[in-house]
């Protein structure tokens, strides 16, 4: 349906997860849909979904169980895509974008936990990079990433932040080589300087956190994913055995000392543990003066949790209402982004949409 259309829009490049069943890049599925009122939502293709899409003339129409719901919009084509770098690589295969309007990079797009059979059970990074995302680059030499960064800044788009996500190198020296060096290149290329966010695995040597800040990072996230200690061990076995639940919290506290209150974030996934545990975890994070980042679980093809049910509307609503209470209790806490994002409703909750 989308492959036959002529208009340009931001297509899903599957930078670090598969998300859609039975699709190829050439199918041109958008990464998000625009719902109006500045709201965006992920597009996840699932057989048997009660939701469906079809074009009616120029309008893309959303239906629920066969009944018309609304006309939806497609995300704007990324103005920094379609550019050729000096080494012949296209910016499309270098730059990632998170949601509709947040450009950045996915550095070191692999995770050594896969080699040990200890990857997080919901993660489809390696499946994505070996199939639908295979054209994307894996290396980020200094010249390549500086040129790509300049294309972002010279695109005419308002870019308040460059967001960088990483896989998990084997050791801290690997981090310095494949993550820290590209971060320095991004910072050096930015003119004027803008915020740089980093989502990564905490280092073994917590002193590396200071190196991130010196490289230009202005906020950082270490996502523990699961608050319940036993479920963390079973769902994230590599993080548990090869790093450790308690050390994860130590790393978050150390990062807060470096970056300041609520400039460090910890993500948890709604739908992978009991509601009470998620609620307790959200408060534990905010009470440590660490920012909260939540994600709604989506069952990706090619993962151990591909058949796990996604959380119900009732559960998401209950968690969002509790999150709203917590934002009132901890008013200094904000969200990483100041826009609606695809797999989270933190921004909506923080802005009072849940009452």
UniProtKB/TrEMBL annotation:
Domain Radical SAM core positions: 91-335
Entries under Pfam families matching the protein: Radical_SAM
SMART domains named in the record: Elp3 (SM00729)
UniProt keywords, alphabetically: Iron, Iron-sulfur, Metal-binding, S-adenosyl-L-methionine
InterPro entries according to UniProt: Aldolase_TIM, Elp3/MiaA/NifB-like_rSAM, rSAM, rSAM_sf
Endpoints of the signal sequence: none
NCBIfam families found in the cross-reference section: variant_rSAM
Protein name stated in the entry: Radical SAM protein
Originating organism: Kitasatospora cathayae
